[in-house]
Amino acid sequence: MDLQRLRCRKGKCLVLGIICCLLFIIVLSLYPLQDLSACSIPSPAVDLSVLCKEAKRKCTFNNNEDSSLKHANPPDQVIPPAEGEAPSELDKEGQPPHKMALIVPYRDRLEELLQFAPYMHKYLKDKHIAHQIYVINQVDNYRFNRASLINVGFLESRSDCDYIAMHDVDLLPRNPTLNYGYPEEGPFHVASPEYHPKYNYSKFVGGILLMNKDNFIRVNGMSNRYWGWGREDDELYVRLLKARLQIRRPTGLETGRKDTFLHNHNAMRTRDNKRFFNQTRLTSRLDRETGVSTVKYSVDHRVNLVIDGAPVTMLNVRLKCDLEKTKWCLKKEDHDKLYRSAANFIINN
């Protein structure tokens, strides 16, 4: 009889434990997490001058910090035309009719940047492409969000440029005949899967993609849900199709996948391709809610650099994360803060 009672107690404890775990998970999913934004801790400042000396690069700096640079765009914001937009015809000084914002989403890739900036400046200058390089440096402690940084780059550059090149810092064009001109007929995918050294699936639109301002606004830019590495370009591909924008690519090049581009990626650096919480499910469907009109961020300060003769505008950007909708913006080591907060919520209620 005692043995039967013991087994019964153990069974009840097991059921009770399962019920408690389920309640904990439910509370965690419902608990208002916006108060945990303190998890975003700024990365320590980097002394670029020291790093430039170590890399034997000539760099000059002009730091500008202005509170007017800070932004927090409200949801569903309609983007009005920016003041001082690039003219559609030659101006009085005979400048080119279009200017490209070369947007580089960036974090902790100084070696690549020191090679990228002077190389691309010379490459575009030789092709007579008016341009400005914008390095959008993510300085918060959330996971890397390439798409949001591109949205930020678009907003910060649109008063000076009338089209953008979304450009990975580790991909350099080697073929001088690649087209970086104004994409008047629609998005132009420079890093075509036919020539990209690594990615060759037909829906690939990453690496280097040119879009004019009208087209970028038409698709509402890129989704802000993609924290971590990968899949944001595939989502953009669907947005372009839904907007009936034809993607054009280079054809007939005399180079191939081995010599059209230089993929300057350090194989020792691991990619943050983990999927946390309900990230896989929510990022497997088209995001109809977020984009360039809803990206939330602030610009800590603007740094004007000259790297081996190449002018670069670096924006230190702090992205905002809605922890109720995208908990996976947090790094793995910050997840325990969510569990502790949910546990405290259960105890206090």
Tags for this model:
349 residues, alpha/beta, Spore Coat Polysaccharide Biosynthesis Protein SpsA, Chain A, eight-stranded mixed beta sheet, two-stranded antiparallel sheet, 10 strands, 29% helix, 17% strand, globular, Beta-1,4-galactosyltransferase
Report what the structure shows:
- The structure is a single chain.
- The protein is α/β, with parallel strands linked by helices.
- The protein has a domain at 100-336: Alpha-Beta Complex (Spore Coat Polysaccharide Biosynthesis Protein SpsA, Chain A).
- The protein is built from eight helices and ten strands.
- The strands form two sheets. Strands 1-9-10-3-2-4-7-6 form an eight-stranded mixed β-sheet, sandwiched between helices. Strands 5-8 form a two-stranded antiparallel ribbon.
- Helix 3 (110-126) links the parallel strand 2 and strand 3 (131-138).
- This is Beta-1,4-galactosyltransferase.
- Catalyses the transfer of galactose onto proteins or lipids.
- Keywords: Glycoprotein, Glycosyltransferase, Membrane, Signal-anchor, Transferase, Transmembrane, Transmembrane helix.
- Residues 92-180 form the Galactosyltransferase N-terminal domain.
- It comes from Mizuhopecten yessoensis (Japanese scallop).
The number of strands is 10
* Beta-strand share of residues: 15-25%
Secondary-structure-based class equals: alpha/beta
Name of the CATH architecture of the domain at 100-336: Alpha-Beta Complex
- Overall geometry comes to globular
The main pleated sheet reads as: 8 strands, mixed
* CATH topology call of the domain at 100-336: Spore Coat Polysaccharide Biosynthesis Protein SpsA, Chain A
Number of helices: 8
Helix content: 25-40%
Backbone CA Rg: 24 Å
SSE series: HHEEHEHEEEEHHEHEEH
Poorly predicted runs of 5 or more residues: 31-46, 65-89
CATH uppermost class of the domain at 100-336: Alpha Beta
Intertermini distance: 39 Å
- Quick check: average pLDDT? 78
Strand order of the biggest β-sheet: 1-9-10-3-2-4-7-6
CATH superfamily of the domain at 100-336: Spore Coat Polysaccharide Biosynthesis Protein SpsA, Chain A
Protein name: Beta-1,4-galactosyltransferase
Family: Belongs to the glycosyltransferase 7 family.
Pathway: Protein modification; protein glycosylation
Function: Catalyses the transfer of galactose onto proteins or lipids.
